[in-house]
Specification:
Blueprint: H1 5-30, E1 51-57, E2 60-66, H2 71-78, E3 87-89, E4 101-106, E5 109-115, E6 118-124, H3 129-135, E7 145-149, H4 154-157, E8 161-166, E9 172-179, E10 183-192, E11 196-200, E12 205-216, E13 219-232, E14 237-244, H5 252-261, H6 265-278, H7 314-329, H8 332-342
Parallel strand pairs: 1-4, 5-8, 10-14
Antiparallel strand pairs: 1-2, 3-4, 5-6, 7-8, 9-12, 11-14, 12-13
Helix pairs in contact: 5-6, 5-7, 6-8, 7-8
Protein name: G5 domain-containing protein
Transmembrane segments: 12-31
Keywords: Membrane, Signal, Transmembrane, Transmembrane helix
């Protein structure tokens, strides 16, 4: 049985395009000489940053030496055309950052998807049957089957591969959905005000979700959540925001002691902020609990591990404090953030 004239014309165009692609691949890749494959060709005139790039295109291979910075630029310089529906790996915006770089090109081919009496045609580079069916605009429900079937009617399908959906009555849909990541901002007294720094990249999570689908007149009108399962938890994005303060003149003496003890300039603002919160930078600051000195060590005698003059020497006391904040919190900024949250450290 022949198709309508409209479909014949449309699919004749698809077949013609497919043949053009094949001849273009053979003409453009199969017989071209390249620097990498030629003997006795000097490449000393090429820029120092040039790299060897190999294209694999449906069985054809082309190796060139190029100064291109990205995959897209390399394709353009090599004269390799990419058509609608083709897939390129790695992606077009990927940086060519190594010699002997490989680029795979998967050419789109004509495909027919049948869902009962509904037939759709598309060009795709995918070989995943579910992905192909979804590209064609069909929903795949739990229990549905997708079969690759022999091409039994050339007049109907031409050179296309045929995928047929067998509906088994299900109306439950299980899909994977993204879980967005959250963002947390934390003050960093070691960073200048107005400066921000990403300390941890956020990552989108993935969950598997099942829905019961409600249809009216064969049109989806609502979804009822049946179950969901987290496959990959999202990773929080952490951004540090500068909170570094200028050192007041009255803090300069304490700042000098901190520098002598080994506090870096990057940590100085946070260190002084914490010190003045705890003791006002007083060597003999005492608390009824037994905490003593600039760091309010409890008991103060802990600072004897640094030197015997722990009761009177501010540098000794701050040296002990450095070890404490690094060991307990991982640094001055983290210790100060803890103090901001709890009022102690």
């Amino acid at each position: 049985m022949r198709l309508s004239r409209k479909i014949e014309q449309a699919f004749g165009f698809v077949v013609a395009i497919s043949l053009v692609i094949v001849f273009a691949v053979l003409a453009g890749l199969g017989v071209r000489n390249t620097f990498a494959e030629s003997d006795g060709v000097s490449d000393t005139y090429l820029a120092e940053g040039a790299k060897f790039v190999t294209f694999y295109d449906d069985g054809a291979k082309l190796t060139v030496r190029t100064e291109a910075k990205t995959v897209q630029e390399a394709l353009a310089r090599a004269g390799v055309a990419i058509n609608s529906g083709d897939t390129v790996e790695p992606s077009l915006d990927t940086e060519i950052n190594a010699d002997n770089f490989f680029i795979n090109i998967y050419r789109a081919r004509p495909v027919v998807v049948k869902d009962g009496k509904v037939i759709k045609y598309l060009m795709t580079a995918s070989y995943d049957s579910r992905a192909i069916v979804e590209q064609a605009g069909f929903t795949v429900y739990d229990g549905d089957e997708i079969d690759f079937v022999p091409n039994g009617d050339f007049l109907e399908t031409g050179v296309a591969n045929v995928y047929e959906i067998t509906r088994n009555g299900g109306r439950t849909l299980t899909i994977e959905e993204e879980i967005p990541f959250t963002e947390r901002t934390e003050k960093d007294p070691g960073l200048d005000k107005g400066v921000s720094e990403v300390r941890q990249l956020g990552e989108v999570g993935v969950k598997r979700v099942s829905y019961n689908i409600l249809y009216i007149d064969n049109v989806e009108v609502s979804r009822e959540l049946v179950s969901e399962e987290v496959i990959k938890a999202p990773v929080e994005r952490v951004v540090a925001v500068g909170a570094k303060k200028s050192i007041p003149p009255e803090w300069e003496t304490c700042a000098s002691w901190a520098r002598q003890a080994g506090v870096s300039e990057a940590d100085l603002s946070a260190a002084l902020d914490l010190i003045y919160h705890e003791s006002g930078c007083r060597v003999d600051a005492a608390n009824a609990s037994g905490a003593y000195g600039i760091p309010q060590a409890l008991p103060g005698s802990k600072m004897a591990s640094i030197a015997a003059d722990w009761e009177t020497n501010p540098v000794t006391q701050i040296k002990w404090m450095i070890g404490y904040v690094n060991g307990r919190y991982g640094g001055w900024s983290q210790a100060l953030n803890y103090w901001y949250t709890y009022g102690w450290y």
